Every structure is written in C-alpha cells, then in structure tokens.
Amino acid sequence: MRVERWDGSQVRERAGELAELLADTVSDGASVGFLAPLGHAEAAAWRRERAAAAAAGRLAVWAAVADTGRVAGTVSLAHPDKPNSRHRAELVKLMVHRSARGRSLGRLLLATAEEAAAATGITLLHLDTETDSPAEHLYRSAGWTRAGVIPDYALSPAGELRPTSLYFKRLDFQRLTG
Fold it and tell me: Among 174, 34, 62, 57, which residue's Cα sits nearest to residue 118?
C-alpha cells in the first residue's frame, strides 16, 4: 500500500474510484456528509467538484493505493482562504474501504496528513466526526483533543440525527518527525 498526494487532475481523472470509496463508506454507515443510498454518479460528481479546489491548493488530497492500483483510502486537508487562518487546516473525508480496514490504513492516512501539514507550517488541525464512531476512537487514540459535542448536528446515512464531536490537534513539526 502506498499513499500518494493527488493534484486536481488526478482527483478529476480518478473521481470514479474515489466515488466507489465514498459510496462504500456511506453504505457502511459512516457519517461523511451523505445519506444512503449514495449513487455512484452523485458521488463521482461530488468528487469531480473537489478537483478545482485541489488544483487551486485549497484542498490537499492523499489516496492510499493498493498494489493492484485500487484506491483503498483517502484523506484531505481543507485550507482556509482567510489571511488570519493560514496556520490551520481542517482534516476532512478520512475514509478507508471496508475491504482494507483493520490494517492501520486509517492511522497511516491520518499521520500522512498531520506530517504534511506540519511540514508546510500548519500548527493547528481541526475536524468534526460522529460522536462514538470508530473514527472518533481513532482520533482520540492518535492524540487529538475533543473540544466538545454538538447534539443533533447531522443526519447519519440512515437519516437519524446524531451528535458530532469537534476535535483539534496542535502540531509540532519536531515532535512529529523526531
């Protein structure tokens, strides 16, 4: 398994594969902003829309690619466009295909995004995730700090209101690489 940083053209060209990953994640119940069932065409269109942000540098995208060439996971960092927030980024859409889970791929993608952020001068990351989800347990075990919980924040893929937990992590480049 290798993790690659993808530019806007790669995100656009491989939107179909990224859509398969997104649809798999949603159908497995992960709250990543979509309701089930999520069709391939809708997922691919959403991914293609993200290509412009990746090309402009507002979104950094990494894909975990198996030896077969199949996309097994992804993670992104969304960079704010305001001058007073250039020191931070939002971790978004950390997803691992069901067939690749249980092999620490989520942890690898998370570490990749954290290290890349620190290397570019980002000192603070933040995210939101469904409360009590497997993702929340990953973030907590990776040293992220829960800032709070918002009740009834978003619908689960099944359409039920669920709380979300807000997390942050201060980055220290020396600590991450040393």
Answer: 174
* Number of Cβ within a 10 Å radius of residue 174: 7
In tens, the pLDDT along 33-85 reads: 999 999 999 999 999 999 999 999 999 999 999 999 999 999 999 999 999 99
Assign residue 124 the CATH number of its domain: 3.40.630.30
pTM above 0.85, yes or no: yes
Distance in angstroms (rounded) separating the CA atoms of residues 105 and 154 = 26
Residues in the chain: 178
> Which has the closest alpha carbon to 61: 76, 83, 79, 46?
76
pLDDT of 172: 80
**Boundaries of domain holding 134:** 2-177
Interatomic CA distance for residues 50 and 85, integer angstroms: 21
How many independent structural domains does the chain possess? 1
Grouping H, G, I as helix, E, B as strand and the rest as coil, residue 143 is coil
